[in-house]
Amino acid sequence: MSLNISSKDHVLKPLLFRNKRSSSARSSIIIHRNICASAQVGLLYGSATGNTREAAFLIKSCLGRTVSDPQEISTVRPQDLLQKYNQGIIIGAPTWATACPEMRTGTAMDDFLWQVREESRNSLLSGLRFAVFGCGDASQWPDNFADAIDEVYTTMAQAGGQPVGHWRPVRGEEYLNSRSKSFREDGHYYVGLPLDNINQSHLTRSRISSWCLQLSEEFSLKGDVQRLTSSDPFNMSEDSRLASNYTYPRSRVPRWSTSNERYHLFGSRLTANWYQFGSGEGSAGRWLKFTDDSVLMRAGLRGQPEYQLSYSAITGFRLDPLSGTESVTLVLFLEDKQRLTGRPWSKQLVLKGLPRSDVPGFCSFLKERGAALH
Ligand SMILES: Cc1cc2nc3c(=O)[nH]c(=O)nc-3n(C[C@H](O)[C@H](O)[C@H](O)COP(=O)(O)O)c2cc1C
Questions:
Q1: Using a 6 Å CB cutoff, which residues line ligand 1?
Q2: What pLDDT was estimated at residue 368?
Q3: CATH class for domain 8-248?
Q4: What is the pLDDT of residues 134-172, one digit of tens each?
Q5: Which CATH code fits 254-368?
Q6: Are residues 348 and 262 in contact, defined by beta-carbon separation less than 8 angstroms?
Q7: Strand 223-228 and strand 327-335: pairing?
Q8: Per-residue pLDDT for 63 more than 80?
Q9: CA 222 → CA 66, 67, 207, 368, distances in Å?
């Protein structure tokens, strides 16, 4: 299918801005004043460990009242977008599911995209302008850098969305040597803004500032664009300031800690009692729900096939209370005796980010159902 590609002029604009940039030491200065009239653009994101979330807050900081407060994607229904944000949306996702054809984000964004695809025959997003950003790691995953941008982009475009925000890196701010499905070789641009907060965090604010200037024109936003200049791209105190009227419990965004464990549950309870985990082995994230009589497992939260594991399948769990002030590590050993996944399944799951206050209740819940505490 052919996608509506915006003018190459758009991807060159950041270069113009960079050349004119002043060396002012002020932390935030007005770089552009757009006089066109428009309403708010929606700002949506999915995030597992917080980088994309924080990028969303930086975009909010740049574009101010012309965009909505950052909305976590599980709180948004695709069918409401056109009515709610008829000026367009800015949408961001990380890449976790390396080389997967879909479900690449490992966040609730996967469910959102799944639902958009389900509805795409109805031109769900017909005419809605959208711009995509995403976080990745070009050093660890040089063959799949920020691939999820492409999945979001393609899914939205196939549902009738009109893309803006194509990105050509500013000279001197190129990415580490890498390949990405979101890069279009023919036009030498990315279909959205990739951010590498793992290796190039010092460039994040500058990239976001340039991209926001471009978006302001492409969305015809009415309002000032602020340039971010702090050397620390993700300053949590600034994040808190921006989030002053935004109640996102910190315990819901536990930090990912890389380890050699095979599976990591990172307990973002975006929907009541569903816990998300990612494998780190190239497969998409999965969700678990601990109900009274079974553990339910599914690839997403909106209609994907669901597997049911009995509690007899939990052969034990180990509690590590030393892993920080906000969370504990809980290691579960699950065995799929019913072969519900279609093959023998025995995995060690590490649950991170369970709020301390939830741990005693969660442990007795499992013990009552026959799990042994190691
Ligand atoms: C298991 C695992 C797989 C990952 N796969 C990719 C990948 O395929 N491509 C990529 O660019 N980054 C990959 N990353 C890096 C994440 O995208 C990066 O850490 C990003 O900042 C996470 O964003 P978030 O904090 O919003 O979840 C991976 C990280 C982990 C731990």
A1: 47-53, 94-96, 98, 135-137, 141, 144-147, 197-198, 256, 258, 278, 280
A2: 77
A3: alpha beta
A4: 999 898 889 999 999 999 999 999 999 999 999 999 899
A5: 2.30.29.30
A6: yes
A7: unpaired
A8: yes
A9: 7, 10, 21, 58
- CA 84 – ligand 1 centroid, Å: 30
Output the six-digit token pair for 207: 């990239």
Question: CA 325: distance to chain centroid?
Answer: 25
Q: Give residue-wise pLDDT tens across range 3-47.
A: 333 333 333 333 333 333 333 333 344 444 443 333 689 999 988
Look at ligand 1, atom 5, and give the residue with the nearest C-alpha.
96
Q: Which two tokens stand for residue 89?
A: 């949306």
The residue nearest atom 12 of ligand 1, judged by CA position, is: 136
98 vs 124, higher pLDDT: 124
**Per-domain residue ranges of the chain:** 8-248, 254-368
Q: Which helix (H) or strand (E) holds 309?
A: strand 306-310
- CA distances 5 to 71, 130, 318, Å, are 26, 12, 52
Q: In the numeric block, which tokens belong to residue 160?
A: 């009738």
pLDDT digits 0-9 by tens, 299-333: 555 445 566 777 766 766 766 655 544 456 666 66
Which residue is closest in CA terms to ligand 1's atom 4? 96
Pocket test for ligand 1, best of 73, 141, 204 (most atoms within 8 A of CB): 141
